[in-house]
Specification:
This protein is of the alpha+beta class. Helices cover 48% and strands 8% of the residues. The protein is built from 20 helices and 11 strands. Strand 4 and strand 5 form a beta hairpin.
Length: 618
Amino acid sequence: MDGDTGRTTGGPAGSSGPAALTGLTAAARKGWAAENRAAAQRLVACYALLQECWREYGHGIDGSHEARPGHAVVDGLVAAAGYVVAAMSISARRAEKMLSFSWELHTRYPAILEAMAAGLMEQRVAELLARQMATVRGDVLEQIQRQVVEDYLNGVAAGIRLGDKALRDEIDAVIGRHDPDAIRLRKEDASRTRGVRIGKGVDGMSSVSALLATEEAAVLAEALDQRVAEHDAADAVADADAAAAQAAARDADPDTDPDAPAEPEPHYSKAERRADALISLICGDTPTHPGTDTDDADGGPAGAPSRPGGPSAPTGGSGNGGGQGLAPVLRPKVTVIATGDNGRDEHGARVEFARTGEAALQTLLEMLATSDGASFEQVDPRIGAADDTSAALKYRPGPELARRVRLRDGTCRHPGCAVPADDCDLDHVVPFNHADPASGGHTVEANLVSQCRRHHRFKTFSDWTYQLQPDGTLIVTTPDGTTMLTRPDGPLAQYRREHQRDEADAWARQQRRNPAPVFGAGILDEATYFARRAQRLARERARATARNTTDAGTTPIEPTADTTPGPDSISAPRERMTPAAASRWWQRNKPTDSALEKAILHALHDHLDELLQPPPPF
């Protein structure tokens, strides 16, 4: 049939059907195997680097070469992760996981490493197998891992493709036959990884991740689905009321088109509904049930959601999926980055939530409208605004200075580290001189950075060098001469970079208008719009005056019918032409008498003194 022929011959030019697909599949598998071998080679190199760092810094993972009591040691894993970050441009967390996995493959799972080196197993599967066998006893580990790897490779060769859950079940079946306690121990260790993590996102969004026990996640899912169903029922009632109101309006107005299409309703996905339900449960909102009268003391309409903490909020009982319980007091903490002179702040203020990042203005207004208040913190964005001469000689920074440094940095400043600045130490880049504080290492913004505890200790006791620029840029140099550079990514640093870009753009515009001004010459290299307009009008008036003078002092000569102009004859003066007749572009470019332009000029003259005031000193 034509359709079948089209599908057969619709491939790329030069293809020959199944033969071409077989060749392309073989090429893809060849690339996959090469990637697996390259991953194994990378892990072998990482293990060698880790061993060298342990020897270099005199600390072994087995507890040998411990430092003397009272003396700190440099963790070889942190040092090796720093070199990996410099070489691969990855995060410090990922580098440490890569190094730890390389150590596990060499010391506990050599069979997995052999399968990767042969190109038969990808790193993702290798990590899954290692996690499942993490608690297996050492005396049976060799036998279990060999059988697990052999079963997996035989299944792949036989065409068996297992998902992650089925693969974990197969591994647990092998472990259960040799070491049943390993599965129990692994589950006990997994229970210690429970937690909720909140991370700053992009585009006004943030991430909230939770790792819960299975039964806890089931309870949360049921509560969310119940709240989603209640919201859907309330929306259905509202839609029905709106449709009835529209029908009544059409009946009352005979000119209304009954077939006119209604505005499409926005579609909300299940994930969006669950996000709304989660916030509703946390904030203690009481959902409005269909068919109930919810007019409150404030005269609110039926079906309107109650404000947390308002008159219609529940006042007792325990919280559950039905929304019963005491509503929490909502007081968001908002950071406003702006100069003290708000009237002259041309670039506007930057609004940040203390824990989740930049806020959209509309979202902020909606939150403030439904909250019980807010705590606003204003931060002056100028560099060194919180520095104090006397406080600079003290080791511990004041609360205002500490807050500014954390708002500037955002995260730990060690290359690749993403620990939030609120969980970091404040480290003096130039060490504080406790014996003579005035000699150097002052406690000022230009000498403080946020460092997590591990990298703080590493910076203090290692032989790496650190240099901090006035704008917060940190330059880190390793002993082998490799240089890495990190820039602060906190809200204060972002505001400063935006301000710097705006100033650079303004200077570029100024240079385009007047690249080399010569004062006193009477004219600039490029005049402004108003100067060019005045010059054009002056030229037009001069030309009109000259024409009028010529016309007034010359008597026109009447030409006769038989008069033929000769070479020596005097030509009669031209008749005065209108601009429209002189140029066909006049209609497009003719000047207009704009009332708006007159109003703007009048306003400029009225406020000229205010516009010419010098800018505030920085």
